[in-house]
Amino acid sequence: MSRAFNFSAGPAVMPEEVLQQAAAEMLDWHGSGMSVMEMSHRGKEFISIYEQAEADLRELLAVPANFKILFMQGGGLAENAIVPMNLSQGGAMDFVLTGSWSQKSQKEAGKYGAARVAASAQADGFTSLPSPPSWHIGADSRYVHICGNETIHGVEFHELPDLKALGCDAPLVVDFSSHVASRQVDWSRVGLAFGGAQKNLGPAGLTLVIVREDLIGHALPHCPSAFDYKLVADNQSMYNTPPTYSIYIAGLVFQWLKKHGGIAAMEQRNIAKAQLLYDCLDNSALYVNKVDKACRSRMNVPFFLRDESRNDAFLTGANARGLLQLKGHKSVGGMRASIYNAMPLEGVQALVDYLREFEKTQA
Ligand SMILES: *Cc1c(COP(=O)(O)O)cnc(C)c1O
To answer: pLDDT for 248-269, tens place per residue?
Structure first.
């Protein structure tokens, strides 16, 4: 058996050690005689898995005590509705549009209240970030939404905006689906962060919400009970059956992160991986990444061949070398390499070697 290097944007590469441990524990978890997916979510075995996962995540991300960690379902897209149902209180919200995902969030929130555009980078094809002092945030804003890392356009906030410094008291909501656990978070600037697990944490089916306590308990009357943060928090994410197996696997990923030096070490590795790849693209006559260097994503690297007629040949050659899922998102075309936490440096090096080799054959 040989494992390929998988550059999928999500569901995405998992740490091999985690997959091996899950395989070894598949039939009989720790002498319980059961697989984790067969356990009651209210039994002592699963409760211990859940409590360990939550404690590890809180430690890894340095989540302050006045934030709740919620394990939900529905993915990032469901949170686009669940956040306004819980935080808007029927008032207006402000969105910073930096790519497809923030656009989707703003559109969905419009079903629940006034979803205003505070700033947009659409005019330059979502290759830059509008600087926070230029944002138009209403004085009555219930919250300000950003997408921390735009998975499709490859644009990332390397510093979270300090809304207080902009004279804004509204909480910041961050969609961190595709860069959660890849870098440290300044929680003093955040009211709520959410993300699906399938990019950087584990299997699809689990959605992580980390929310400041004072923002809980204000859901709109028609908010489904299973999506009311207060009910979810008061029931330790077990108001209804949580995605138990996905929580278990995410918990193994948290242990893997701790074993390999935690988020600070992971962030350094991610910086090195991204630099290796961007340097290769920037020093080539064939490939191009159009994103402003100040906000290039460390997780998702979209790039184009200047001669697009070579796209199919490029992908065929990549697949033959075990470099998988490099095709760009259909809305932007070209290529995209997602290099999440679980992608080793050797995988990025193998991609860079191939990029150089393919370019030479085109000369
Ligand atoms: C993948 C992604 C989503 C959507 O997640 P689903 O789990 O498919 O709903 C939302 N936001 C960002 C930034 C993403 O990368």
So the answer is: 999 999 999 999 999 999 999 9
